[in-house]
């Protein structure tokens, strides 16, 4: 089928019945022609193209600024030309909406670099004054306010203020001086907190008192399943939290969680059973779990080639063996290749190890 292109007038062959253009380039030119219109800039009187859906009034931003600043601009849109405070680019500043930056990027730069800095002249920052604490004598800086908020700082913290008030009862407001039940130090409290028993939250937690100031219990006290230490449990975790720390939780998982046996460990297990040796599999020793423990102090590890041949695991095994040897244990590592291909050699190594101690140690496959 031969057709004529609507844009360029050339003939082309096609199998599509509704095709009207010979190429995408001609289609784009026709679309641009149908969706654009020409207008005249009111400032420079130059004709320019603009979209029909969103027509522009000026040919450029420069003409728009010049027109708005001039006498032809509406009264509500009259303004002046200015410069961006960050990059120095010319911008149009409206009369009813003053603008300081040319873009949002410059505004974010101003916020990150100049908004909280004292060197920025457009923003008022309260100056800081150096004071000396009346109790501990430490020098500290604090903002200096004027007017209603103007007052002098005497203490560097609330703790120093409370201790000073407890030592100088004539220089404090109406309140009470209590004795801390944990550390025995005298502390000052206002009348609203006259029933306070501890000078700080640290003393309250050290004493094991988990009650709030209103006398209501905010949680419960539980006993750790590993170390037996009592610890505080919040109301949302009551009955769920069983360990005082992550270390105790890891120790409990090592001693109670069941671990599956691998193929190499199964072969070593059969060798030990055939030779009538007593052993214990997956025995936890400290924070580690060993593959085979033979009383009184022998440990056998079955190392797979894929996992234990990497430099990272080799260094980990070396540190692990040093810790176990410091506790009086002797360690033997059997490579997975030896266990699979030569069981007799593996059997002889185990017997020699039990007779002569740590003869082989850590081996690389």
Report on the architecture of this protein.
By secondary structure, the chain is an alpha+beta fold. It is 30% helix and 22% strand. The protein is built from 11 helices and 16 strands. The protein has helices at residues 24-35, 61-69, 104-113, 158-167, 201-207, 246-256, 263-274, 305-308, 311-326, 336-341, 343-356; strands at residues 2-4, 11-13, 36-40, 47-51, 79-83, 90-94, 128-132, 139-143, 175-179, 186-190, 220-223, 230-233, 280-285, 288-294, 298-303, 330-335. The strands form 7 sheets. The protein has a 4-stranded mixed β-sheet, with helices on both faces. Strands 1-2 form a two-stranded antiparallel sheet. A two-stranded antiparallel sheet has the order 3-4. A hairpin with a 6-residue loop joins strand 3 (36-40) and strand 4 (47-51). The two termini are 74 Å apart.
Element-by-element helix/strand order: EEHEEHEEHEEHEEHEEHHEEEHHEHH
The residue ranges in which pLDDT falls below 50 over 5 or more consecutive positions are: 212-216, 358-365
The strand order across the widest sheet is 13-14-15-16
Q: Residue share in helices? A: 25-40%
Q: Say what oligomer this is.
A: single chain
Largest sheet entry: 4 strands, mixed
* N-to-C CA distance: 74 Å
Shape: flat
